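Protein modeling request. Please complete all fields; requests missing the sequence field cannot be processed.
Requester role: graduate student
Desired output: 3D structure, token encoding
Chains: 1
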Amino acid sequence: MTNAIAVVAHYDDAVIWAGGTIKRTRSLGWDWTIVTTCAAEESRRDYFVRWCESFGVRPVALLFKDHPDGGPFSQNDRVALCEAVRETVRSAAPDWLFTHSLDADGEYGPHPNHTEAAEALASLAGEGMFRVSQVAHFAYRRVYGLPELATVARVEASHYLQLDYDELRWKAEWCEAANGVEMRDPALGANTWLKRLAWPCPNPEAFTGSGLRLPSPFVGR
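Delivered output (221 residues):
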């Protein structure tokens, strides 16, 4: 059996950037653990757990702070976050690891929490917990002139997964559910940023990494 782990910042990041990938490979027998590092809010944590359990993947919700402003680890302790991720990675014993981009522009622009998740895995690879070639980073870029945060696969991505209609519809339904979570959040005043992503985005899903050689069903460039 192939074991995989995704380490993402927010409750909906795994859906947005790799939802089709996780669903497709799960149907092929991959065993998945999904970690969200910033799941302090109960409604978002509930969504995350429901999404994972709906098709049999293991959810791990960490309670670090969601902070779109400030630099990486300006409001979350680096050592504590890396240690929490380390314990999960150790127990999952993954063949493949998926996480956010380490590029300065991220998926749709820089986000400190995304960088925290990616750097946590990078630090563990530096310690020799796994090979760098096992890490797949999300590989997307913004499309200017369309909705503000619309994204497409980067042309320099090393691997792609083209979603079919049913996978895209499934992804759209969970994105809509995430939008509902934010619309009901009194702290946001019904002002959700998810609509600006032009979701369900993106298709194809795309990944890259140093020496990365993902197996079927991924298509290498």
